[in-house]
Design goal:
- It is a single chain.
- Helices cover about 40% and strands about 15% of the residues.
- By secondary structure, the chain is α/β, with parallel strands linked by helices.
- It has one domain: Rossmann fold, CATH 3.40.50.
- It has a seven-stranded parallel sheet, sandwiched between helices. A three-stranded mixed sheet has the order 7-9-11.
- Helix 2 crosses helix 4.
- Residues about 340-355 have low confidence and may be disordered.
Amino acid sequence: MKILVTGGAGFIGSAVCRHLVKDLGTAVVNVDKLTYAANLDSLKPVSENPLYSFHRQDICDPEAILAIMRSEKPDAVMHLAAESHVDRSIDGPAIFIETNVMGTYSMLEAARTYWSELEGPARDRFRFHHISTDEVYGDLPFDESLFTETTPYAPSSPYSASKASSDHLVRAWNHTYGIPVVLSNCSNNYGPYQFPEKLIPLVTLNALEGKPLPVYGKGDNVRDWLHVEDHAKALATVATRGEIGHSYNVGGRCERTNLAVVEAICDILDAQLPRPDGLPRRNLISFVTDRPGHDRRYAIDCSKIEAELGWTPSRTFEEGLADTIRWYLANEDWWRPIRDKNYAGQRLGTGSTKT
């Protein structure tokens, strides 16, 4: 089997590529524009594998994407390429509309043409897997409620609105043109190779360097955390076994407040690498003005994918977080060049979203 992965040099996309090639022996065609958050170093574990190939290409060019599809002849498309940082979407929403909405439209049109040219078993097995976020559902009160696959959409940021738009496009192309699609919506991912502007790596590296640890508001916003390698396994399962036209929520069953996550990072670092002055890293926490429209709580009901496809998250948050911090301590050569760059004046924020 051969799968075309868009955004395969990003955080989740690279985890998907590594899992498909190394664990499943699946051929992968990685298509990535290589924007600021992409990093081909994240693919070094598979870059020399004959099952892996790479095309640097903008997904907003449907003719170029179609040419790659016709040349590589994938059995499926896993569409992960997206702008994903909420803070950046508030500061500059245009690129989110271009990449997440127009880019998905471009991918759907290329895939529709490619699929229409297939015959026999190749046509029957083809599918387009669109990877999205739980943020399309809006937010939840501080209670026991959960997002399900039938929760009405209520996006509250430019980022989540752009992803909600792309989800609607995918469903419309399935309904109108018959293109075989599956969708998935995930909770907050964490793990190795995550871009250092996201909450867990940002706090880890700031704490390591003795810098302030900014927390929005009172830090009481709640997120469900999913290890990226568990997510990669779920995505491969949905792409190959999900029912056409269906969506699947993927979560870690690990709800934590943002403050609890930051405090846990401080405590793990204190245990693994104490500060020279012996002071606890919790002393570095500072509370900053909340961002506009900050969602209160995300929580995923992942019972559908568990019951129908047999996937369950394999890591507790405590295990996954400790492993992630150990990875950052051992891989400064990966994050240091990113950390030292000046992203055209754009700040590293405290967003905790997907990429």
